[in-house]
Design goal:
Strand 10 and strand 11 form a beta hairpin. The strands form two sheets. This protein has a nine-stranded antiparallel sheet with strand order 4-5-6-7-13-12-11-10-14, with helices on one face. The protein has a five-stranded mixed sheet with strand order 3-2-1-8-9. 32% of the residues are buried. The protein is mostly beta strands.
Length: 142
Amino acid sequence: MIELISYQGLNGLKFGDSIERANQLFGAPLTERKSKGGEIVQHRKGFILRFSSPDKAFSEGVVPCGENVMLDGTLIDWSSEGLSLLCREDGNPLEYFGSVVLFSKGVALSGLENDMESERAIAVFANGVWDSLKNQMNIYQT
C-alpha cells in the first residue's frame, strides 16, 4: 500500500527531505535520471519520486494507475467515476495541459482526458509546486 498525505509526502518521506533520506526509507532506486529542468527523478517499485533543483529536496511523488494507494486515509478508486468523485470533492478542479490539479487535496491527476487507465496517475506535491501556474489553468469539467 502506498500512502499519500496531502501537502506532506509519500510513505513517510516528507516534502523537503533529501535523496539520502529516500534511500534510507526505500533502498536504492531502480533508476535515477536528471530531467531537462534539473530535477532528480527516481523510479522505484510502484512510484516515482522527484527532487527539486538545485536543493535536491523531495517535491513530488507520482503513483501510476493500478497501485494500491491511499490519500489521507482513503483508498483511491482508479475508475473514471472514482477519479471524477475526487474532482467533485475538491470543488475547484483546475486543468493544465492534461493534468487536473486538486489544490484542496494537494494532488494532480493525469490520464483523465482519454479514459485510458494505462495513462492514469496521481501525484502528491509540496505546497507551492503548482502555484506559479494557477493563473494559466482552466476549470476542469467532470
